[in-house]
Write a structure and sequence with these properties.
Length: about 210
């Protein structure tokens, strides 16, 4: 069972490699859209952090791992042992069994980890683009998770239906965090939108629409 620290260490090279690629692509995009003069540092900083996070997430879900051999060589390998689980809520039984046996790390990685790692997707998708909603956050999380599970099949990482609902739950919780931020600091959230994007009316915020 891998630890949280090992995940972070494995994510780091991919996140660092994504930095120059993202910066170059973003500059070209803004130049093409004639938006280089906007200088919305709040939005650009958040987009940068989100893109780097997605690179790290992809490295642990879609990309093969990079293994440095003791002899100095470099090879690619897949995490996990493959397999497909199409029985919903199996993770609950496995988590309970592992937890009662003293393996709390299983609960942190396989259960909480699948929820937490998708919270930024639900949060950022709602923060950056106008007309955020519970349905959009849930749909985004579900589709993204489904695509990841399908990509994992040929990589021998395994595919698990429980990952889909856990990831979707994480995206929904991320949307909930966004709603709390929107209620407390409505003007603050507008800093992350493009100029011209309509803010959510005050009365709709209070009604939760």
């Amino acid at each position: 069972m891998r630890s949280i620290g090992s995940f972070l260490i494995c994510m780091l090279p991919y996140m660092l490699a994504a930095i120059p690629l993202y910066v170059a692509a973003r500059v070209l995009f803004l130049k093409r859209e004639n938006r280089l003069g906007e200088r919305n540092y709040w939005r650009e900083g958040a987009l940068f952090a989100y893109a780097v996070f997605l690179a790290g997430l992809a490295s642990q879900t879609v990309f093969p791992g990079v293994l440095i051999e003791p002899e100095g060589g470099i090879s690619l390998h897949a995490y996990g042992a493959g397999g497909i689980n199409l029985v919903p809520f199996t993770v609950l039984q496995e988590t309970y069994r592992e937890f009662t046996e003293g393996n709390a790390n299983y609960f942190v990685i396989n259960f909480l980890g699948n929820i937490v790692m998708f919270m930024p997707i639900g949060f950022c998708q709602s923060l950056f683009w106008a007309k955020a909603s519970f349905r959009k956050a849930a749909l985004t999380g579900c589709i993204a998770s489904l695509c990841i599970e399908l990509c994992q099949l040929p990589l021998l990482r395994g595919a698990d239906i429980d990952d889909i609902w856990l990831n979707t739950l994480g995206a929904v919780l991320g949307y909930g965090v966004y709603r709390l931020l929107l209620r407390a600091f409505p003007k603050y959230t507008e800093r992350f939108r493009y100029a011209g994007q309509a803010a959510v009316p005050r009365e709709k915020i209070s009604k939760g629409k």
